[in-house]
User: Fold this.
Amino acid sequence: MAVEHLPDPDALAAELAHVRHRQRDLLRQHDRLTERMLAFPNEFGLAWARSLATEIESLSTQITAIEARLFLSRA
Assistant:
């Protein structure tokens, strides 16, 4: 008989805090880059902005998944 292991809520909360912090850092970087790009547009900046946007979106998906696991662990 298989035993289902429940996730550790404290570990999930810590992971969630870390991912949210990383996302806020990337959002700040993206905002600064956007301001610079308005003054001095270039291909490198555009590629970097796209890369940051992709990572920010990935972190949003990860945050949603962690929140769901936290919700289910409390149920």
Notes: The two ends are 23 Å apart (CA to CA). The chain has a mean pLDDT of 92. Residues 13 and 70 are 7 Å apart (CA to CA). Residues 43-74 form the longest helix (32 residues).
